Structure formats: structure tokens, C-alpha cells
Amino acid sequence: GQVQPLCLVFEDLHWIDSETQAFLDNLIESLPTARLLLLVNYRPEYQHGWGSKTLYTQLRLDPLPPESAGELLQALLGSDASLDSLKQLLIERTEGNPFFLEESVRTLVETNALIQERGSYRLVKDLPSIPVPPTVQAVLAARIDRLPPEDKHLLQSASVIGENVPLTLLQGIIEMPEEELRRGIGHLQAAEFLYETSLFPDVEYTFKHGLTCQVAYNSLLAERRRTLHARTVDVIESVYADRLVEHVERLAHHGLRGEVWDRAVKYLHQAGARTATRSAYREALVYFEQALDALGHLPESRETIEQAIAIRIDLGPALIARRGYSVPEVEETYTEAQELCQQLGDTPQLFPVLWGLSRVYNSSGKLHMAQMIGEQLLSLAQHGQDSGLLLEAHHTLWAISFDLGQLASAQAHTEQGIALYDPDQHRHHAFLYGGHDPGVCCHTHAARALWLLGYPDQALHRVRDGLALARELSHPFSLGNALEYTAWVHQHRGEQQAVEELAEAIITLGTEQGFSRHVGNGTILRGQVLVERGQWKQGIVQMRQGAGLWKGRQQIYSDALLASAYGEGGQIKEGLNEVAETLARIHKTGIRVYEAEVHRIKGELLLRQAVPAEEQAETCFQQAMEVARGQRAKSLELRVGMSLSRLWRNQGKKDEARKLVQEIYGWFIEGFDTGDLKQAKALLEELL
Asked: Do 172 and 235 meet the contact criterion of CB atoms below 8 Å apart?
């Protein structure tokens, strides 16, 4: 009946392949913390990505203290009195490192300074004449040098393959008869350099320690290493011809180090795309960048130009997911790809490149340029009658239209997207276009447009559909976006409990995945909830912290929230400064979707001054009303209508105040249990 806790232990972890890393990351994310305990020990040079996780704890494991080191040596050497001085020397030289101690003892046995057997050795050389190397690397290097030439050659060849050595690969790259090979492996096993760790489906050996593999590898001449790496690529392609995709990271590694440049480019690109599908974007970026570097070693041709474009098309979404649209590298990637497309002339690769450029221009405030490219994409897609391209043309246009405040247009494009989207057919688009799923995006953008247009219940249904799809797809960046926009809808509906829960989920996901955008926006939302509860000092601190983590298209919305929070806290000057900066940003970028709300907030702040500036406030409300009506943003029109109505009521214009609110409130057909509509109803009753 009960689910038992799962405990995984990794001993002396110094390197981990991408598949295992992805497995661990997904396991940590998917299992409740009460059911998972992951214990890992590793050397300082191992680099992992868990430090940012909320439930990660690091403990320093120091070398063995002298007493424990003495106990280990007692077990290894025995208790012969002649060993006492040697034990002390070994503890001092190794500083209690158990692996160093064990390798030092084995060196003494191999050099005949110690005789008999493990646990009952006897020292037969004078202590001053016994050299104890100063580092474990030196111990290992000396041990490897003492091997017979054929065994040393075998160990070095195995080190090129890596710490885990399938016998079939070793047979393929080593120039040695099978009987001699197996005999040599037996020698290396007896000397405890290698262990047999797998019999099925392939016999596989593993180095006793990663450092052993590293020292053996470093003892090879560079040209010999390169030759063996290149030969390893040939062998993998031959042995695993029917399942190369399972070995693409290994092929990329050996192709790069073997300087087999054409295949290095191919497999590095494939490895980057494969890791990106697991949302391992940091690793994917390394592969893509290595692929571009490797491509530089090949002569320019149409094929290499097409490869350069294809790599950049895959690099763009990974960069966006990891660093956001606004970083210079994203624009550089798509601009370079566009220039390469121009060299080729007519090429289908142009569509995803233009899509990326459109999103870059959108995020950098060049909305009309972005929209112009979006219309070009729509024309290309309609000409080609490709449902996937049509979906992505509408994808870029619904986002641009929304930012411009063209809400009806945005809504129309999202409805087209919802009609076109097929999760089985289009789920791979998340790795070509913007790093997120278009189906999730069209539902969540539709939800925001619907709320602004005055349909809060339909907005909630749409955003719930988008969130359900994101969870079904298990695509972290799309899920982060869906959580953010779901919180946006609940925040505008006045449902703060839901916002708080979603904010925590956004922060957790963003922290685990390294998505600074989501951490920043989640922190802003959490701060806004605190402000709503009257804890405005703590709330403003969190909102400012969140704003410092991320500067993107949603900054105008978050700045408006911060300006309003300043007003709640009585910091009117700070709020007005924030509004002034936000209006300047709206003017600069053309992102007008929240312009009406910013003017309204400015008016409210002016009324909160020690001496209320009623005339200026009314001007702000009238500006807000004009913008909201021009955008058909009924929900924002209702908000500013209530603000203006309250001002008129206080000025004795009760009839005008009631008529204004009644006219707007009477338009609505749903959402009467949401915050704004309940406030409007209460205001109408007050004005009767």
C-alpha cells in the first residue's frame, strides 16, 4: 500500500553522462522530496547543476583523520612492527586520502618493497630508500609506466574510450589479437585498473577510478590520442549502426577530439538537439557552439552553409530558454543565419530564421519591424499550404498583436492557432521556435486577450487548457510560461490565493531549471500578493528583487504592479517615478497593451498625494479611457471607469458617476464573481 522512499547513492562521482544527468534532474523534479533521498560524493573538480535547487545541501567530506587512516592501513598492511614508520609516512604524504593510500600501498607491493599478502605485509626495504610520490597522479603514472608495454598500450587505448569501456569498442580500436586482448584485460583486472561491470547486453569494463582513466589518457601522445578517437568513431558507427542515436553524445565527443570534422559537426549538432529535447539547455548550448567551431575547419560549400544555418536554428531556442530573447547572442544567432540564407537564395530554412528575428525584434521593442516580418511569414506559409508553418506564422502574430494592444487581432490569431495545433504533429516545434510549445502559447495568449476584452470566465477556461497541455507535454519552459500566464489571469480576476500558490510553483520550477525569467516573475507575483495583504514593505522588496532578475516584454506589466504597490504603501513619489519610467518605456518600445492601466495607476497616485491633484488625475483617467476603448479592452475600461466614477462622486457628480459605471458594467455577460465586477456592482449600489 504505502510508497517507500527511494534512496540513490553515487560514490566518488567525478563525471556523469548527459543521459544520467537528465535522469537525475527529472527524478528530482518529479518525485516528492519525502520520497527521494539522493546521496552523492564527488571530488572538487566535478561540476554539477544542483547548487541552485531549493532542497540541495552540501557537506564537506574531509580526508580521513589520522586515526581512521591508521585503521585503513591496518586493514591493508597488517600489524607487523616494521610497518609503523611506513604507516606514519603514508598518512603524512597522502593527508588521509583513502584512494591515495590504497594506490601507494599497491605501488609498494609492485616494487617489492612489501612482500607476502594483503593484510599481512612485511617491509623488506629500508624506509629512506622507498620513494613515495607526492601526488596520487604520480603514483598512478608510475604504476602505469611499470606495466608491460602491451598492457600499457591496452590501458591507454581503453582510456580514450572513456571510463566505461565496452569490449566491442576496445576490440575495434586496438590492434591486438582477441586472445592477447583478453589476456591483457585479465592482467589489468588483476592489477585493479579495470573491473568487469556488465555482461549484458555487452561486456563492459570500468576504470577503478576516474583519475586512473585521466592519468592513462594524459600519458598518450596527442597524435596517438587523435588517431584513437577517430578510430572510435568508425567503430561505433559500425558496431551500433542500427542504433546510433543512442550513442550520439559519444560520437560527438570522439569526433571532436579525433578531428574528424565532418562527422564531428554532424554528431555535435545531433547531440545538442537531443539534449535540448530533454531541456538540458546548458549542455545543448555547449554542443551547438562546438558544432559551429568544428564547422569552421571545413571548406565552405552549400552543404556547410546549410549546416551552419541549421545549427543556428536549433541554437536560437536553446539560447532563448536559457537566457531570454533580449540577450545579444540571440539576435546575433538569427542575424547570422539570415545572412547565410541570403547567400543560398531560396531556402526553406529562411522561415524559422525569420520567425526568430521577428521574436527578437518584438522583445527589443521594434514591434512594427516584428509585425512586418510576421506578415511575411504568414504570406510564405499560406503560399506553401503547410499547417505547421501557418501555425507558427499565427504564433508570432498573436504575440506581436497582443503587445501592440491589438487585442481583437491577437485573439483571432490565437483562435487560428488553436484550430491548427496538433500535439502529436507539432510538439517538436518547441525546439525550433522560441523554445516553447505553440499550443500552450496560443491558449495562454488567448486567455490574456480574453480577459482584457472582457471575458474573464472564458479566459480562465482557456488558460486552464493551456496549463493542462503544458503538464501533459512535460516541457519545462512551456510549463513555466503556462504557470506564469495562469497566475496572470488569476491575479486580474482578483484570486490572490491561487496567485500565491502559482508564484511558488513558478519560482520552484525556474530555480530547478535555471530559468531566471520565471524566478523573477514568480518573485514579483509573490511580492504583489504580500502587498494585497497589507504587507507592502516586504512585498515591495520582493517585487524589486524579482524585477532585478529579469528584464523582458512583461516588464511594463510588472512595473505597473510595482507602481501600484508603492501607492498602497504611501510611497507616492516612488510610484510616480515608476509610472514615468514605464510610460517612457511604452513610448520607446510600442508595447501598449498595458498602457491604459499605467495611466489609471498614475491618476490614482496623484489622488493619493497630500494635496490631491484632481484635475491632473482626471486627465490621466480620460487618457486611460481613450486607450482602453481604442483597444476594446473592456476589463481595463471597467477599472478606469470605476476610478473616474469615484472621483466624480467625490466632486458631487453622482449621476455622471453612476451612468458611467452602469454603462460599462451592463456590457458584461460573465465573470460576475471576479474582483473587478464585484467592486463595480458595490459601487453602483453605493451610487444609487
From this structure: yes
